[in-house]
Design a protein that fits this description.
The complex is a heterotrimer of chains A (135), B (1038) and C (222). With 135 residues, chain A is an alpha/beta fold. Chain A has a single domain, classed as Rossmann fold. Chain A is built from four helices and four strands. The relative contact order of chain A is 0.21. Chain B has 1038 residues and is of the alpha/beta class. In chain B, 51% of the residues lie in helices and 9% in strands. Chain B contains 39 helices and 18 strands. In chain B, the strands form three sheets. An eight-stranded parallel β-barrel of chain B has the order 1-2-3-4-5-6-7-8, surrounded by six helices. In chain B, helix 6 links the parallel strand 5 and strand 6. The longest helix of chain B has 85 residues. Chain B is elongated, with a radius of gyration of 53 Å. The two termini of chain B are 84 Å apart. In chain B, 41% of the residues are buried. Chain C is an alpha/beta fold. Chain C has two domains: 117 residues, Rossmann fold; 72 residues, no CATH class. Chain C is built from nine helices and nine strands. Classes of the chains: A alpha/beta (135), B alpha/beta (1038), C alpha/beta (222). The interface between B and C is medium-sized, with 36 and 30 residues.
């Protein structure tokens, strides 16, 4: 599996119509962030989330439809439960569950994705800083 | 009756029963149970003992029940199914029954989840109903649960169960109780009742099923201690129905406890009226004190008298009284034994008295015999006088008679030599020939009667004197001088001018032979066979026919024919104990010479020259060539005049033989008799006291103020081991040594000291002699030492850096008996002072002091060789001791020591074999062992002392008990050096380690005293107080 | 059905310490149904292991495979050789599967990924409940089909105990009192009298207290 970006965003096809490249070009998201487009977040499996971390991602977030407005009725709801379980696995592995989030986004909106990307970037920076002070 | 329990009796008698509850402690403290039991005693008919209620580990109900029983309270033992399977439960049921428990309440038990071990595996092999069935089966069917028969002593238990009228399904509750009764319950105690109404309904169902007729129903009640407790029970205890009314009453109450009691009394009064209720079960959890009050206020007091309570365990009171009784009995037994022993002692005292009497009578008899002998002598004297008178008379008669008739036969017979005592035939023959000779002589010389008489008297006296003429019947030596006196007294009676004429060949013969024979006999008696033979031969050359001379010569030859080995020690008989098999006579004698010399030296040391002389004389007798014995004798002569004169006199006074044996024989008894060990020990201890301590010090304990250490002398317990051993035979603990440690002399002149000489382990006075007492040398460093703690430095601050002054101070101020000059400055790894320079210093020290000097090198073999050689070439007039000789330099230094006849210290790493090896090497070199001191390499306390001790002890045991000749050498222990380099001597004073000086002194003194016990004979030490302490110890032990 | 649950990842990582090549072996039997050890769970465990090893700085080769069942010998046949190639075979089967691999595949180092919990039913998606204790002496005919051995906290034979209130067990209000349920069931069937009979003390030998149990059906033996 190809190495992943520092931040991986699993995005519902209906959420981000703007390609990642465009966001990056606009300087809206941190460099090296990767957006993976999914037909529906309901298709996202736990092993994919954990696998993203295993393949090099340091933070992952999932952007799905608004919970009651899912294109596929309950896709983002399922995704949210799987994210919760995946967080548990991260905890078991002593990885901060804060580095995995689920957001619910209005169709076609890029704002929350950009925002969450920045939040994740900040969390990573904070983590690295605390790591440094610790060592 | 099922079990005959008190509860059963009360219930069967139809009285309203009251039971209580007792929760065992979460500890092994029986007092908790006892206390609770005492509170409940007399107020309830029986007490439930809970079985780890709410699954919290507590003292088992069986045990606590027994403790309650021992307090006179009848237990109802609770048993749950949670913690034991059927095997464990049946076992405990049998045990409970065996120990007097008569009521058993069968429960399933609270789930372990509620307790303090929620992780535990709940057993629940069966439930409470099956448990009831099982116990009933054991009791009535006499069968274990498996069906096997209980052959005897089936458990007789009054069986109870619990019932919760408030649990669900409510309508099934009475039926479930019916199941329990069917399974075996004889009585039931209900869950805590607050909702009396609901309980009444429950009872209605119970009555409908007729259960109340098959079992006794006790209503459970609990006084709510507080509103909080009531609320907790209402909300959190499943199956407990606390009514709002109860909560309200408590809430409104001023005194919740009081109200709690009121509530419970009200409930009791209500349930009492419900048909089928046979009693109440009052559960005052951790509030047992409330029970008496509740019972009283509910009108249930007093409780019927207890019956059927037989405690198997005894109460603490009973235990105490039993103990007291046992103690009393023991005391009486002891008293009886003491009385018996006393009587025995009395009896033996009587025996002793009788024995004394007998001895006294024997002595008086002996005295009488002496008297008799004396009177015999005086009789004889009288006889002699009578004879003289007769002679006088005869002479006068002769004078008056014609000359020619003088030598008449009658006269001859009258004037013959007369000895009153019975004579041997030989003596008679000699006497008769003597008489014949005299007669002939008289005839030839024409002697006058007086002259003849005088001659005859003289011969008679001579005969008696020299021919063993002591009358055979007299046992006492005393008459001898009397006879001698007599003879002397008689002699002047003879006329000197009329003395016997010059002996012609014929005349002189008899007399000379007689004299020679007498002399020969005396020599024979002395066992000087060759001398005797010579004399007898001389006599025979004069008179070859002399029978006595012949006989004497024969005896002398026979005596000489005895093996020479035996002949040699013969004169020393009495001096030498029987020789052990493994030694030759000479070796044995040699050892004893050493021993006697050692003893002599000790005696001399103690200021008892007379005793010393005796020892030296003995040594001298054993070996007249022994230089030490000779020297000792010389020293006895030169000993301070104060002591010997009065003491020597009684020792030399010849005490009459029979009187010597008599203990009460006046002043002689006080005279020292060193050969008697009993008398010796105490005297030894008494005498040196005034001498050894020039300035008597207070015998007080060391002063408590730190820094000021004063050392008192130690108290002496002079109880002899024999006494302390309480009659145990000496041979059981006395192990006499067969070896003796050699003596080594250090220094010269008056201040010379002798080390060693012991024939027993250190201070084992009961086994032998210690020889010379242990000595202490002061350690003086040849350069100003670094890193010396103040506690030590302050004693030498004025002299440190100047070894001459330092040494002088040790001698003059601290009374050093010897000095060890540690030439640390020569160490090549340190100052590396030139050997010649160091030797100059050593010489200066040697010149400045008169006590023995030990020169101790830096420990570098090559450098020490150089330094010590230099030193010995400089110091020529003094016998210094050089140290240390190691396996690396013993050849060079050993040769040097031999050349100057210096004592040396043989130093080896702590090991028995290495020590022995070096001694052998030195001996092979030609150095005699009496010039060697062994340095076993010692460690201070905390730094290997125990190892040192054990090796020294082994060396000493090998020397004393295994005849390891090469190890019969005294020890020197360089203690100061080791002690004062230990960091503990340098750490400052603090609360934990205490005062620095006291600490250092004690470390040194304890090291020293330990090594004394291991056999250390010469100790090198630094701190004057430590030396003082150690000396006090030595003094008290010698 | 046998109900199992994944062990926490640190425990799994701990038992695989030092392994360089690991096979995660799923089972499509009970554990797949109860979502503990089927293909999907193998994938999740695999990803989590990769992440865990990576975090620990360990290079571990992880392979995944899932058998139809691990409790029948024929399915284990391929593992006998293949299993030896691995430093560890992490079985996501129940304890039976792990035991069976250990018994049948010498040289294969097998480790359990799951804790085997109980015999239960799937109440709804994601929820399972114990229904049977496998005690080997069924009394369900006496208790209205409800098992007091598996479902009563104290395995009472003559319940309900005094802790039964409102149909709930005293140990946990979320737990139903099975004896209350039995009472109601029997009442419904007009069989309450059955509960008035004392149920005799049980013989626990059939429950495994007499040693490991075995069943043989002669006619089916090869």
């Amino acid at each position: 599996m190809a190495a992943m970006g520092r931040i991986v965003a699993f995005c519902c096809n209906y959420v981000t119509s703007v390609p990642a490249e465009a966001l990056q070009e606009a300087g809206l998201v941190p460099e090296g962030m990767e957006i993976r487009r999914l037909p529906c977040t309901g298709k996202l499996e736990i092993d994919q989330i954990i696998g993203a971390f295993a393949d090099g991602a340091e933070a992952v977030f999932v952007a799905g439809c608004k919970i009651d407005k899912c294109h596929n009725a309950s896709g983002s709801h399922r995704a949210a439960k799987r994210v919760k379980y995946a967080k548990k696995i991260l905890e078991e592995l002593s990885i901060s569950p804060d580095l995995l989030e689920m957001i619910f986004v209005e169709r076609g909106e890029a704002g929350p994705v950009v925002e969450m990307a920045q939040v994740m970037q900040e969390r990573l920076e904070a983590r690295d800083a605390s790591k440094e002070t610790a060592t | 009756m099922i079990s005959g329990s008190n509860l059963e009796r009360v219930l069967k008698s139809g009285q309203f029963a009251v039971t209580g509850e007792l929760g065992p402690p979460k500890s092994g403290d029986p007092e908790v149970v006892r206390e609770k039991a005492r509170i409940l005693k007399g107020h309830v008919d029986a007490v439930n003992i809970t079985d780890c209620q709410t699954a919290i580990v507590r003292m088992s109900s069986l045990t606590a029940g027994l403790i309650a029983l021992s307090e006179g309270v009848e237990p109802v033992m609770q048993m749950t199914c949670r913690d034991r399977n059927r095997i464990g439960m049946q076992a405990d049921i049998l045990g409970a029954s065996a120990l007097g428990i008569k009521n058993l309440l069968c429960l399933t038990g609270d789930h372990q989840k509620f307790g303090n071990h929620p992780q535990a595996k709940g057993v629940f092999d069966m439930d409470s109903i099956q448990l009831l069935q099982m116990v009933k089966g054991m009791r009535d069917g006499r069968r274990f649960q498996c069906g096997e028969e209980i052959k005897s002593h089936e458990p007789r238990l009054f069986l109870g169960c619990a019932a919760n009228p408030f649990a669900d399904p409510f309508e099934f509750r009475a039926k479930r109780l019916a199941k329990k009764v069917e399974a075996g319950a004889d009585f039931v105690q209900t869950q805590i009742i607050y909702n009396v109404e609901k309980f009444a309904k429950f009872m209605e169902m119970v009555r409908d099923l007729g259960i109340h007729e098959k079992c006794y129903i006790l209503a459970g009640v609990t006084p709510p201690k507080s509103l909080g407790m009531a609320r907790y029970m209402k909300n959190f205890v499943p199956g407990l129905d606390v009514t709002d009314d109860v909560i309200k009453r408590l809430k409104d109450a001023n005194d919740q406890r009081e109200e709690g009691i009121n509530i419970v009394v009200d409930i009791i009064n209500q349930v009492k009226e419900i048909p089928g209720v046979a009693g109440v079960h009052v559960m005052a959890i951790e509030w047992e004190q409330a029970v008496p009050e509740i019972v009283k206020r509910a009108g249930l007091a007093p409780r019927p008298e207890y019956e059927g309570v037989e405690p198997v365990l005894v109460t603490s009171g009973a235990i105490e009284s039993a103990v007291a009784q046992a103690r009393e009995e023991a005391a009486q037994e002891l008293k009886r034994q003491i009385d018996e022993a006393k009587a025995e002692a009395e009896a033996s005292r009587g025996l002793i008295a009788k024995e004394k009497e007998r001895t006294a009578s024997e002595i008086s008899q002996l005295r009488k015999q002496v008297e008799e002998a004396k009177s015999m002598v005086s009789q004889k004297e009288a006889e002699i006088q009578r004879l003289t008178k007769e002679l006088e008379k005869a002479k006068q008669e002769i004078m008056s008679a014609p000359q020619g008739q003088a030598p008449a036969a009658g006269g001859a017979s009258q004037t013959a030599v007369v000895v009153e005592e019975p004579l041997t035939s030989r003596e008679e023959r000699v006497l008769s020939s003597l008489n014949l000779g005299l007669q002939a002589l008289r005839k030839v010389l024409g002697l006058s009667d007086e002259a003849f008489e005088a001659l005859r008297r003289f011969l008679e006296a001579e005969f008696i004197l020299h021919l063993g003429g002591v009358p055979a019947g007299a046992k006492v030596a005393a008459p001898a001088p009397a006879v001698e006196e007599k003879a002397a007294a008689i002699e002047p009676a003879s006329e000197p001018e009329e003395a016997p004429a010059p002996p012609s060949e014929e005349k002189g013969r008899n007399k000379e032979v007689v004299n020679l024979v007498a002399k020969g006999n005396v020599l024979l008696h002395k066992q000087d066979f060759s001398g005797a033979l010579e004399v007898f031969e001389q006599a025979l050359s004069i008179d070859p026919d002399d029978e006595q001379a012949k006989e004497g010569a024969e005896k002398a030859r026979a005596g000489m024919a005895e093996p020479a080995a035996e002949a040699a020690p013969a004169p020393a008989e009495g001096l030498l104990p029987p020789c052990p098999e493994e030694l030759t006579q000479e070796e044995w004698a040699r050892k004893w010479v050493i021993r006697y010399v050692a003893k002599g030296n000790v005696a001399l040391q103690k200021g008892d020259p007379s005793a010393a002389r005796e020892f030296f004389e003995k040594a001298f007798q054993l070996d007249p060539n022994d230089a030490k014995a000779k020297a000792g004798l010389d020293r006895c002569e030169g000993a301070p005049a104060a002591a010997p004169a009065p003491e020597a006199a009684p020792a030399e006074e010849p005490a009459p033989a029979p009187e010597k044996a008599e203990p009460e024989s006046g002043p002689e008894a006080a005279a020292p008799k060193p050969e008697e060990p009993k008398a010796e020990a105490p005297e030894k201890k008494e005498e040196p006291k005034p001498k050894a301590k020039p300035a008597p010090k207070p015998a007080a304990a060391p002063a408590p103020s730190p820094g000021e250490l004063s050392i008192g002398s130690l108290a002496k317990d002079e109880t002899k081991l024999q006494e302390r051993a309480a009659g145990i035979s000496e041979e059981l603990y006395v192990e006499k040594a067969t070896g003796a440690i050699r003596e080594v002399v250090l220094g010269d002149g008056e201040k010379a000291i002798t080390i060693g000489g012991s024939t027993a382990l250190p201070f084992y006075w009961f086994e032998g002699e210690m020889g010379n007492p242990p000595r202490i040398a002061f350690d003086v460093l040849d350069t100003e030492p670094e890193d010396v703690p103040d506690s030590l430095a302050k004693y030498y601050s004025d002299v440190m850096g100047d070894p001459v002054k330092w040494a002088q101070k040790c001698v003059s101020e601290y009374g050093a008996e010897a000095i060890c000059l540690s030439m640390v400055s020569t160490d090549p790894n340190g100052m590396n002072r030139a050997a010649s320079e160091a030797a100059q210093t050593a010489k200066a020290v040697a010149d400045a002091i008169d006590v023995p000097l030990i020169l101790w090198g830096c420990g570098n073999a090559d450098k020490d060789t150089e330094t010590l050689r230099e030193v010995t070439s400089l110091i020529t007039d003094k016998k210094v001791c050089i140290a240390p000789l190691t396996d690396a330099n013993y050849r060079n230094l050993g040769a040097t020591a031999m050349a100057f006849q210096l004592p040396v210290v043989a130093s080896t790493p702590i090991d028995v074999n290495l020590a022995k090896q070096l001694n052998i090497l030195l001996e092979n070199l030609g150095l005699t062992l009496d010039h060697i001191l062994m340095d076993p390499s010692i460690g201070a306390v905390g730094y290997g002392l125990e190892y040192t001790y054990s090796v020294m002890e082994r060396i000493r045991l090998a020397a004393l008990t295994q005849q390891d000749d090469k190890l019969m050498v005294p020890f020197i222990c360089n203690i100061g050096r080791e002690v004062w380099k230990a960091k503990e001597t340098k750490l400052p004073s603090d609360a934990m380690l205490g005062d620095q000086e006291r600490r250092g002194v004690l470390i040194e003194a304890i090291t020293a005293s330990s090594l004394l016990m291991a056999g250390g004979e010469l100790l090198i030490m630094r701190h004057p107080k430590a030396v003082e302490l150690t000396k006090a110890l030595i003094e008290s032990l010698t | 059905m046998i109900i199992a649950e994944r062990k926490p990842m640190p425990e799994i990582l701990g038992m695989l310490q030092g392994a360089r090549k690991v096979l995660i072996l799923g089972c499509r039997g009970c554990v797949a149904i109860c979502s503990a050890g089927g293909d999907k769970e193998v994938g999740v465990i695999s990803a989590a292991l990769r992440l865990g090893f990576k975090k620990a700085g360990q290079e571990v080769e992880i392979h995944e495979e899932t058998f139809v069942r691990q409790c029948d010998p024929e399915y284990l046949e391929p593992l006998k050789d293949k299993g030896k190639e691995y430093d560890a075979v992490l079985s996501t089967a129940c304890g039976v599967g792990v035991n069976f691999i250990a018994d049948r595949c010498p040289g294969v180092k097998v480790f359990p990924a799951l804790d085997t919990s109980f015999y239960g039913a799937n109440l709804s998606s994601g929820e399972w409940k114990e229904m049977c204790a496998g005690c080997g002496a069924c009394v369900l005919h006496l208790t209205g089909g409800l098992c007091p051995v598996a479902r009563c906290a104290k395995s009472l034979s003559n319940g309900p105990c005094g802790g039964s209130v409102g149909g709930r067990c005293e140990i946990d209000p979320d737990v139903q009192c099975v004896w209350h349920m039995i009472y109601e069931k029997l009442q419904e069937q007009d069989r309450v009298a059955q509960m008035e009979e004392i149920m005799p003390v049980r013989d626990w030998r059939s429950a495994g207290h007499g040693g490991p149990r075995r069943r043989v059906r002669e006619d089916l033996l090869p």
